[in-house]
Design goal:
The chain is of the alpha/beta class. It is built from 14 helices and 17 strands. It has two domains: about 120 residues, Roll (Nuclear Transport Factor 2, Chain: A); about 240 residues, TIM Barrel (Alpha-Beta Barrel). The protein is about 30% helix and about 20% strand. β15, α13 and β16 form a beta-alpha-beta unit. The chain is globular and about 65 Å long.
Length: about 375
């Protein structure tokens, strides 16, 4: 931590365990990113809490990378410069270092890097650079058996449930196709590291997301993701956790914590995913978003900085933003969010975006052919 506060990032490299080093493109890339990230914020001091033994560490960028029996050390960082967006500085008061204890004459090594880690809270640089990357963002909802029409009260309800469901066999085939293509599943934070700080992306990067907080992805998708070593982001409506609404079952808080502790990301999907946010004032947004993010953070112990907006994006293109949309972006930034993903009107194979607030996604449908999936990846 003394090296971190002094900005001696290259010196930290020798302290990292192999599992930690493997997450980075190189020592030079790590140092370059951290210099860019903390240039305006300027860490000035730190405080350490009481170490606790017997925990395990799992990489949130590669859930297959796990280290058992590590010591965890609470750590907080104070800054002397400008930390943006507002509220992010407090997220650096509750981070964790994970240390593999000395053994057999070997010194202890860092596996979880706390404020220097890839999954540390995102800080907005003083000047946002212009960079372009090609990263498809896949949008799933339910992964499980196709719905039964008789269990739905209306044909519309059945059709909606059908279109939101990807059968487990299809999902498995799609993940296998990513493996065959040597794709790397990354988080939205990792995407931000590339766009904001210039950290090189792994080859054929893709982001995998799940909306709505349904139980079925935990049951059917997570084992496949673990099989293939892919991380994913789960957008959870805080007000639906633990509930059953007719035939829809939602994850419990214990399962939300389980996801966060086993290499996956939990981000915000508003309170009930039922109210469009566009045009709402800050007091109207507060119970729908900021309160939900704080609730998620209490249960996961992880920062929540991304949101999946409720409902379809109201404009024809993800690249467009009118006064109502810009106002919501500004309000969300004041609450500590850094970006949002869209359910836009057209597939992102024809879309681009100029910022983290308007990230378009590829909606995954049941019955998608292998050729269609390959095309979506190439053009999404």
């Amino acid at each position: 931590m003394r090296e971190f506060v002094a900005g001696q990032y290259q010196a930290e490299w020798s302290m990292l365990a192999a599992a930690a080093r493997a997450q980075w493109p190189s020592a030079v890339a790590r140092s370059s990113m951290l210099r860019a990230k903390f240039a305006a914020a300027r860490p000035s001091s730190f405080q350490l809490g009481t170490p606790e033994p017997g925990r395990s560490w799992t990489s949130r960028e590669d859930p297959a990378r796990q280290v058992a029996a590590v010591w965890t050390v609470p750590v907080g960082v104070r800054f002397s410069g400008v930390v943006a967006p507002p509220g992010v500085a407090r997220l650096y008061q509750d981070l964790t270092l994970a240390v593999r204890a000395p053994s057999g004459g070997q010194p202890g090594q860092i596996v979880g890097e706390g404020p220097a880690s890839l999954d540390a809270p995102i800080i907005q640089p003083g000047v946002v650079p212009s960079r372009t990357v090609h990263v498809p963002i896949l949008m799933y909802h339910r992964v499980g058996p196709l719905p039964i029409a008789a269990q739905h009260r209306t044909q519309y309800g059945y059709q909606l449930a059908y279109e939101l469901t990807v059968p487990p066999g299809q999902f498995s085939s799609e993940m296998a196709a990513l493996v065959a293509a040597h794709a790397s599943a990354i988080s939205l934070a990792r995407l931000s590291d590339a766009l904001l700080y210039g950290l090189p992306l792994p080859p054929r990067a893709v982001v995998i997301t799940f909306d709505d907080g349904r139980l079925s992805p935990l049951t059917y998708a997570v084992p496949i993701l673990r099989r293939d070593g892919f991380t994913a982001t789960f957008f959870v409506p805080a007000g639906l956790v633990g509930r059953t609404v007719r035939v829809q079952h939602y994850v419990t808080w214990a399962e939300v914590s389980q996801l966060a502790n086993s290499g996956f990301w939990v981000e915000d999907h508003t309170l009930f995913d039922s109210i469009d946010l566009w045009g709402l004032s800050a007091p109207e947004l507060q119970p729908l978003v900021k309160t939900t993010a704080e609730t998620l953070m209490r249960h996961t112990g992880r920062a929540v900085q991304f949101i999946a907006y409720s409902g379809a994006y109201p404009l024809p293109s993800a690249a467009q933003a009118g006064p109502a949309e810009v106002a919501v972006f500004h309000t969300l930034a004041s609450m500590g969010y850094v970006g949002g993903v869209l359910d836009q009107q057209v597939q992102s194979s024809t879309e681009t975006t100029a910022g983290l607030w308007q990230l378009p996604r590829l909606r995954m449908f049941p019955g998608e052919s292998a050729a269609g999936f390959a095309y979506a990846l190439a053009h999404g």
